[in-house]
Each structure stands twice: as C-alpha cells, then as structure tokens.
Amino acid sequence: PFMADEEVFGAIENPWPIMAKYRRTSPVSSGSYSAAFGAPSDPAAAGRPHYTAWTYDTVREVLDDPVLFSSTIIHRIGVEKAFGRILIVMDPPEHGRARRFLQKAFSPGAVRQWQERVIRTVIDGLIDDFARKGSAELVAEFTRRFPFDIVCRLLDLPPEDVDLFQKLAVTQTFAITPYVNEAMEARGNLAEYFRC
To answer: Would the pLDDT of 1 be above 50?
Structure first.
C-alpha cells in the first residue's frame, strides 16, 4: 500500500547522485521533483509553475516564508478533497493555532501513558505473532503494521479492522499524486466507516 520507488524516482535506481548534483549546481530548479527523475508529474498540478528546492537552506527558506511559499496551493489541488482542512496545508496564523491544540493531545505525558497501555502491548503482540513462526518479513509484519495497530487501539477500533483502516488511510495519502480519485474515494469510505 506504499508508493513504489518508481513512483517517486522514475526508473532511476540510485537517485542520490542526481540530488547531489542539483544541490551543488542549482539549489532551486524549475520543474517538479518527479520530473527530475523521469517520473510523471502530478496531473493535479498540471499547468502550474513548479519548482523544487534541493538544499537544506532553500527548503528551510520555503518553510519559513508562508507569504511567498503558501501551502494553500496544495490544499486546493488535491489534499482538501481527500483530507479536508488539515494542519499540513495551513499557513500561519491558522497553522499555529491548530498545532498548539494538537500538541496537548501529543504531550510527553500523554505519550508516556500510551507507552505501557498501548504501544508496548502492540509491539509485544506483533513480535509474538512472528516469534511463533520462527521468522518474519519485518517490513510487512512489523514496520507497516505497527503505526496502524497503535492508531486503531487509540481509536478503540476492532482488531479485525486494522487491515481495512490501513488500506483506506494509506490510499487517502495519495491525494497529490495521479491517484487523487482513489484518495477521495478512500476518504469517503473512511468517513463512512467512522459513521457506522
């Protein structure tokens, strides 16, 4: 359910030298990130000027200047359709207000409480599942499952719904890719699931 490397890097097996070249020669380049690797551009962004920041300093500049580099364009071209109004597409001061509200829910004290009540239990259960078999494919059986099992426990969802929740949640994240229709469908299905 995760984007394959070819979706991100095209047919390039080793993208790191290309990124290093861009960082040396052009900290900001015209064109989409995916186009730099020969992959198709996001059709939702078609007809819009596109630039890629390659260095830490240029990325930091983009993130620190919401007036010149607003997040709202992403909101308009797809993310809103799949997620609604979310933190990542908010500019200040709205972003700050929402972030302060969410920080309370994810404070160190709250996370400490989850550690024993939820997180440790999920980790032990996942390890027990593959320990009985004597081997495991760690990405499939642990890394991909772990965050979704945690969220499902925190939301008090039935354990048998973890796979469905994971599929819908991951598909929903494809909102700024060629899969925006699938992302919107996943959003609707996820909303319907929570209404039941």
So the answer is: no
Give the CB-side neighbour count of residue 32, counting CA atoms within 13 A.
Answer: 19
Segment 107-123 shows an average pLDDT of 92
d(CA 102, CA 98): 6
CA distances to 16, 66, 182 from 72, in Å: 29, 9, 21
Of 32, 31, 39, 30, the C-alpha closest to 8 is 39
Distance CA 102, CA 72 (A): 20
The one-letter code for the residue type at 67 is V
What is the pTM assigned to this prediction? 0.62
Cβ–Cβ under 8 Å, residues 126 and 142: yes
CB-based contact 187:81 (threshold 8 Å): yes
